[in-house]
Amino acid sequence: MRSSLDGRRARRVAAALALPLALTLSALPALAEPSPSPGDVVPDRQSTTAQNGVALMRIVVPDQADVDRLNAMGVDLAEYKKPLDNGIEVHAVLSPEEAQSLRDQGFDVQGAISDQTDYAENQVERSQAMRSAAAATAETDTLTPLRAEWFTSLDDQRFLSVEVKSSATDAQTVLTVTWDSGPGTAPDSGGTAAMSRFTDAGQYMYHRFNSPLSVTQAPTKVTVTSNRGGSVTIPVTKWLGAARKAPGKHYVADFVDHYMDPTEVTDRISSLAREFPKISEIVDLPYKTNGYRRAAQAQFGTVAASTFYVSSKAYGHEGGNDISVALTKPEAASSALGVTVTGKDVVVALATDASGAVTSTARQVVDALNGDAAASALLAAGTYRGNAGTGQVAATPATRLTDNLKAPATVSREPFQMKALRVGKRRDGSKAGVFLYCQEHAREWVTPLTCVETAERLLRNYARDADTRKLVDDLDIFIVPTVNPDGAHYSFYDYNMQRRNMTNHCAVNLADPAARNSWGVDLNRNFSVGSVFDGYSGASTSCTSDTFAGPSELSEPEAKNEVWLTEKYPNIKFAMNTHSYGGYFMWPPGAYKAAGRELLPRVDYGTESFFWSASSHILSAVQTWRGTAIWPGRTGPVPDVLYSAAGNSADEHWYNKGIIGWDFEVGADVYNPETKRFQAVGFQPAFTEGHEEAMEFSAGQIAILEVARAFSSDRNAPKSELKVTARTAGSTSFTFTIDEPANVYYTLDGSRPTLSSPKLTAAGMREGAQQITIDATTEVHWFAADIAGNNEKNYKPDGNGKNYNKARVVVGDAR
After folding, report:
1. Mean pLDDT to the nearest integer, 440-468
2. Whole-angstrom Cα distance, residue 364 to residue 741?
3. Which among 439, 436, 454, 426 is positioned nearest to 653, based on CA atoms?
4. Is 50 exceeded by the pLDDT of residue 520?
5. Contact by Cβ (8 Å): 637, 597
6. Gene3D superfamilies attached here (predicted)?
7. Is the confidence at residue 126, as pLDDT, over 70?
8. Looking at residue 361, what DSSP letter applies?
9. Which of 236, 234, 240 is nearest to 218 (CA)?
10. If 192 and its partner were Cys, which of 178, 655, 692, 812 is the partner (CB 3.0–4.6 Å)?
11. Residues with catalytic annotation?
12. Can you tell me the distance from the alpha carbon of 324 to that of 165, in angstroms, rounded to the nearest whole number?
């Protein structure tokens, strides 16, 4: 879900969608009571002439006949119908009285999709937008170029990517791009196209193409014009493909030939450590997972009010799967409700009235089971999703409980021992550490292959490739190929779209068997920086949400293991979190608060420049395998190119430990030259595609190691210059240029610059260095410091030296 919803609306939508849909299981109930007869009606809406309380509601019905019946009854149905496993979902505009009447007639009326609050908010937003648009038409806008690049991808197809920011932020502003077809050609000879307006959290960010444009020739310039009158011409540069040394001729690759579950992956890295003991070892992470295991369950009933379920106290593999429950009807009339237990067989004798008919309700059976000492030692019972359970139950033959887990016996049901493969010739903490980790999200099957491929390349090429040997000799590398082993096992064998781990934090009203695919914690939302508990967007506190952040920060052992590794080995300075899919290359900050789009603090200008500089090397390495180019528009800080991800691990490592961390989303869209469209590859593409993704992004991981090694051996001081950028009669603007990614510390009062002095910042998102404007002639003192710790001219800011840079910037007649 996009993060543009405000918090209140997001909570309403989350509440409306929180209950998982019933799954196709034996003895699971339909979620609607028997349908009303054709004569049933709903109340008139005259009581709500002010529209108070009217909302768009979800209704789930068993079949089309009930849809037709709702229509015949005069229910205000939207033009929406969606097939479900348990029936059909339709949407209706209902007052509270109408909704209650339909529920009284047995219809399953669920949560609100939207209500009058949305209407009021939309009207306010519309008024504000119209005022902004009216104001914007009064003056010519200013266009700020952010990026203009061409690149090649798969089969040398050329593409154009342009990003421009207008000072007119309203939706009426239209930017159009024209481009040439190479040196010396007409400015519009290459083509023309309108740009899309990119917004996030309701705020305008900039204009761009939704997808890079296919071009026949590489353009040299683009001209962007606005319907507000603004215009700017931008030189086009080449994106990626910078010269990069190819691996040595004896370099070997391609070590994965199928998708692997976490047991296979963990066995694989353990085997590598045994095979290469001189340059690798296994680190057992201290927090074992909850395990690929669940309580055994059974559900009885077909209508919500008469449905209940039971869950074993022991996990299924520990005996829960051996329990059975039967509901019997006594022969005698006026029998009392009773429970008997023989071994692990539980029998509930239902109560009958004087005529011999069953009178026991779901609630009464639940209370009887929970109140019987022998039965409650084996299991716990509950009504269906908090229903009052007033419906009568029916006799049911003995039903054996099951944990419903389908993995083979090779997959242990016990808590999983997570492992890291540590690679390095000198593993004593003296070398710069790099943390590569994959599969935080269970359904992302390509990512562990990427980590395994990287491990294989490092170890098997050490003796034969000089460049690999340098990496292993000069770095301390930690590889965790599967951060989410329980969830990944579940994804492989039970429910392929599982994103989270398997730990069920839901209360009893959401713990029935039909909800089993909706349990678990999104591990990449469970960390302690910028979390949902701190008010940041992009995670949920609903236990059935796919972005459930857990009951608290760092509640999950898998997340604790990541933090432990960075604390145990403080030499870790770099990290890469590999996800799928979409083809992204991102870095912190990763989260914001929706109100005002309040970001976590952006990294400083020098670090941001380092991220961009490194991206060229890393993404060029990805491209070397089969030509895949990660788009410029999918490169940058997480919220700038994707969305807010509250409580993610990269933010945890950067803000708490200063670890320079990236995020890969492997699986870039594939361009189809016949349809001229990019096609998404999904979480689990055919292995032929998954294999290629693992190969190319393993090359990217190797390039990250190269960046880390270069960083750790960097002894070169940066060089900077002051550059005047604009003059008027009463002011002068200037900035600083630097020959490598670095920060500039400066003073304007003639004092000696230190690390506490003002620091050059970015002008704005993706806009380059800030412009400093003065209104009087000023003596500027400054020095540059790169993020490896090298100071320009070896200047010591905490000392007394005077070897900092000095320049006199004049204003007006002082020239």
Report:
1. 95
2. 70
3. 436
4. yes
5. no
6. Zn peptidases
7. no
8. B
9. 236
10. 178
11. 665
12. 66
Query: Which residues are 59's β-sheet partners?
Result: 90, 109
β-strands 660-668, 572-582 pairing: parallel
74: left (phi over 0), alpha (psi -120 to 50) or beta: left
Q: What stretch of H or E contains 90? A: strand 87-94
pLDDT of residue 676: 86
Name the helix (H) or strand (E) containing 268: helix 262-275
What's the pLDDT at 72? 67
Which of 535, 651, 655 is CA-nearest to residue 597? 535
Sorting pLDDT into bands at 50, 70 and 90, what band is 24?
very low
Could you please state the CATH topology (level 3) that the domain comprising 720-814 is classified under.
Immunoglobulin-like (2.60.40)
Section 630-651 average pLDDT: 90
Integer Cα distance of 646 and 575 in angstroms:
18
Q: To which residue do tokens 């918090």 refer?
A: 7
The C-alpha atoms of residue 320 and residue 403 are separated, in whole angstroms, by 8
| Per-residue pLDDT reduced to its tens digit, 333-343 | 999 999 999 99
Question: Measured at the alpha carbon of residue 173, what is the angle toward residues 168 and 176, in degrees to the nearest 5?
Answer: 115
Q: What percent of the chain has pLDDT over 90?
A: 66
* Domain-wise residue ranges, the chain: 31-120, 143-238, 262-289+413-712, 296-400, 720-814
Per-residue burial over 568-599, b if 16 or more Cβ lie within 10 Å, else e, is: ebebbbbbbbbbbbbbbbbbbbbbbbbeebeb
The order of strands in the sheet holding 720-727 is: 720-727, 732-738, 772-774
Angle separating helix axes 116-136 and 7-17, nearest 10 degrees:
140
The domains spanning 143-238 and 720-814 adopt the same CATH topology: yes
Identity at 35, one-letter amino acid code: S
Per-residue model confidence (pLDDT) at position 35: 34
Residue type at 202 in one-letter notation: G
The helix/strand count (H/E) of the chain reads as: 15, 39
Provide Rg for the chain, Cα atoms. Answer: 31
Cα(first)–Cα(last) distance of the chain, in Å?
A: 56
Average pLDDT, the chain: 87
- Residue 746's SS3 state is strand
CATH code of domain 143-238: 2.60.40
Confidence of residue 19 (pLDDT cuts 50, 70, 90): very low
Q: What is the pLDDT of residue 713?
A: 93
**Looking at domain 262-289+413-712, which CATH architecture does it have?**
3-Layer(aba) Sandwich (3.40)
Of residues 412, 417, 418, 416, the one with CA closest to residue 317: 412
Peptide bond into 589 cis (omega under 30): yes
Q: What is the pLDDT of residues 564-600, one digit of tens each?
A: 999 999 999 999 999 998 999 999 999 999 888 899 9
Q: Are 154 and 187 in contact (CB under 8 A)?
A: no
**Do the beta carbons of residue 582 and residue 441 sit within 8 Å?**
no
Element (H, E) at 577: strand 572-582
Cα dihedral 12, 14, 16, 20, rounded to 10, equals -170
